[in-house]
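tmp note - RNA helicase
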Amino acid sequence: MVKRKLNANDVPEASPAPASTPEPTFASLGLEPRLLRGIRDQKWAKLQPVQAEAIPLALQGSDILCKAPTGTGKTAAYLLPILHGVLKRSQRGTSALILVPTKELALQVSRVAKSLAAHCGDSIRVQNIAGKESAVVQRAQLAELPDIVIATPARAIANINIGALQLMDLAHLVVDEADLILGYGFAEDMENVAKNIPKGVQIILMSATLNTELEFLKSLFSREPKRIQLEDDDKDAHRMKQYMIPCAEDEKFLILYALFLLKLIKGKSIIFVANVDRSYRVKLFLEQFGIKSCVLNSELPLASRLHIVEEFNKNIYDILIASDETEILGKRQKGGDTEKDAEKPPAKKAKSDKDYGVSRGIDFLNVSNVLNFDLPQTYKSYFHRIGRTARAGRTGTAISFIIPKDKYRKHKPTSIPECEHDEEVLAKIQKHQKDGQKIENYGFDLKKLEAFRYRFTDALRAVTRIAVREARVKELRSELLKSQKLSRYFEENPETASQLRHDQTLNHPARIQPHLKHVPDYLLPGGKKVEDIGFVGLDGDKEKRARIVKRKGRVVRGRNGKVDPLKTFNKRGRAKK
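out:
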């Protein structure tokens, strides 16, 4: 028999509801106080789901295989336990090795680590060796036995082979963006790293997807890790609006111009294109109308690429054109991903800059729009691209231009082979959409843009193949000069580097036509017609040219006040005075 609780007046009352379990916080995880101060500096209000699951497991020393969407806080999920472990160690030495696929991501991770350890003084030393420093410089950096080393697999194994990177004290090995590591041609390097790490090292694999590459890495280190698998929240699916615009090849440029001119999209935008030439063609085209943009591609020096990302995140400019050519390994495959392709071992990439990547890893802050000017090769790349927007609870828009087969190769100056299979890739994208997500037709009425066609044609004609090539070479030379002569100076004076701008006009391979920048109201959809203002003189004096002959009834008087007989007649004869 259950006894009822009586109050002071011997009246039965309901038992109080059991206290709800409080949400975990950074402080409740038992992290070192100095790290909590670093977290407070980052203004992180609460734990992200991946952090709430991964940090306690990592602090216990468990191996972890974590799959979580891009932008969910995976970097802090493995950095905080590592930093906590370093502070608890009594001996000095390299205790953590963090492997990433790109140089940009290596710099990003090192900056986050240093920010979190800002109140730890010399107790934590972080060294990034993914840059282009010489072997002598990196040997000197590693000779100081930094606590945490961040590198690409190629750089890590190169320094291991020459004895510069010592792993006898290693306690943690992290592979960030693990599913990309093998796709970037690091399979052999990862095998060599696995042979050189001591037994008992904690293994943490972080990824946005679970695929055959990730399973290969898991088997490489022969462990049974704790699995953490977080899917996209259904609410997040509704924050992302996806649209497609079927159009002809040359109409891509017209629609892009209209989207920015008519302010159909607002906020910061990333425009993804198929290759480097394409990025400069789009930049030069937008410059014709006074629209500022910036190009980011693998040809630019690493310091320039990183600075471009920083300036974009600081809202210095709002349009970034990215040539994410790392996801096109050689020639475009017909139809995109296939089951046979997934079974093959990861192929090595041709050397351009295999440590470069845009659609994955790097944090682009507050991106409102992703424009797939050229549809990517595979549906996976599409989802990685659009993952740049609608992050951290914000809304976002993804717009993709689709070339139907009947319109492919109809305008050769703007045609590229990468667009031949757009419809097939689109079908795969639609097939792999998650619940609550779909691609809608934007319903763009091209008839309303007929008034812009002559301007668009003039601008596109000015952006010749020679102009694109000259722009590409000119910016490359400029950035190389800055990188070689000023890199040391900028290292010592980082505030000066922020004064560089990457959205400058390219002085100027394409012929700039000033009249294209001004668009009369009557050309705008729904705009009003120009009023009949009468006769305007053609003399050079602006004040005189501004004077307008006023019509009073049917009589037209000139500037001297006399009646102008040539403008006073009508079809019935001379007008009355």
